Amino acid sequence: MIIKMAKIDRRVQKSQDAIKNAFIELMSEKSFDHITIQDISDRANVGRRTIYDHYMDKFDLLDKLIEEHINELRKLCESASELTFAEGNMIWFEYFEQNYSFFSTMLSSKGAPAFRKSFLEFVVEELDIDLDLTEGINQGLSRNLVLRFFGAAIVEIVEAWITNGLSEPADVVARQMGQLLDRNL
Amino acid sequence: MIIKMAKIDRRVQKSQDAIKNAFIELMSEKSFDHITIQDISDRANVGRRTIYDHYMDKFDLLDKLIEEHINELRKLCESASELTFAEGNMIWFEYFEQNYSFFSTMLSSKGAPAFRKSFLEFVVEELDIDLDLTEGINQGLSRNLVLRFFGAAIVEIVEAWITNGLSEPADVVARQMGQLLDRNL
DNA sequence: CTAAATCTGTGCGTTTTTGCACAAATTCAC
DNA sequence: GTGAATTTGTGCAAAAACGCACAGATTTAG
């Protein structure tokens, strides 16, 4: 971060944004399999060639897109490492809200199940960092079991909230989930 | 039109669109005099250099912008030359509605008075084409006087409708103004 | 009024985007 | 299943956008 910050060329930024947005849009209209590079190129109003300048193929595009958001979430986790779950969740849920269209399509039925997997993996990874089994109420439990147990729980709540169209206020969900986690971890 | 239709490069189109939109936006925020090329470049998210690749300066930009819309209106007039005013006006007012942000800023207080002048000039020009003084109710009247009389009237109605925020339905205004014109020209 | 800051217009070399063409792969329609 | 149509991935050369630097004009602040 501090080491290399070669600012991205404005054109690159714009092209990638257009491509990603077009892709997300298309994901909400048809399944991943039926999206063609051509479609993306048309929708993004970008030369087909340009897409290949940035991504290997649509799988790569999807990967990069997922990875990018996971990385953003990872950063948020770092910056919130000193907070309680209840507090940190607020930041998380804000991010979900801001990038609603992405998470919505990625978690919806048509969306790539790939994302759910990556997401759970990441959540487990993050929980792993702070989980302490040597003392407290979780003493003696299997690390793996605890991580998967709460990891899946978190993912489920986020998914439900997103696919329900954000029907409940972010801060309410964040606080309640935070309460459950702070009580257990 | 039929002769040369060298399709515009996608990048050119996008840059110019961004620049024009940024400019229109800025026009609604501050007066023309206070808008800098820098502002436009920032707002449009386009290199300052790029603006100079397309326009001499902000005056040129304004000119081109105005000219472009006037030309569009001219095309509409041609395609509607066989219609009555009541009918043709519908097409006109649709165009105004579609490009509301442009006309709105151009006719608003802060907008460049330059536009009003160009616009009136154009309307007169168009009326001139079809005006026949050799017969009918306008026999014997001064051509110039008739043109300016109704030209100004038309501009005024359009201006009032636009600056009033399109409070009345386009088709109503179009039809009523059409009635007045069909009765007189 | 003066100094600092900002904006302007332009030259220049670099990077990115683009369209086109093409062969191979895939999908679609019948 | 076969043939037509579409999509894919890539090479290439031209066009556009870019950032930077600079000197001069203009604006802003004290």
TrEMBL record, chains A, B:
Record's PANTHER family?
Answer: ACREF/ENVCD OPERON REPRESSOR-RELATED, TETR-FAMILY TRANSCRIPTIONAL REGULATOR
Provide the alphabetized UniProt keywords: DNA-binding, Repressor
HTH tetR-type domain location: 13-73
Organism per entry: Terribacillus saccharophilus
For whether the record's keyword set contains DNA-binding, the answer is: yes
Q: What is this protein called?
A: DNA-binding transcriptional regulator, AcrR family
GO molecular function terms listed in the Swiss-Prot or TrEMBL record: DNA binding
Entry keyword Membrane: no
Residue ranges flagged as DNA-binding region: 36-55
Do you know which InterPro entries this protein is assigned to?
Homeodomain-like_sf, HTH-type_Tx_Regulator, HTH_TetR, TetR_C_Firmicutes
Pfam families reported in the protein's UniProt record: TetR_C_8, TetR_N
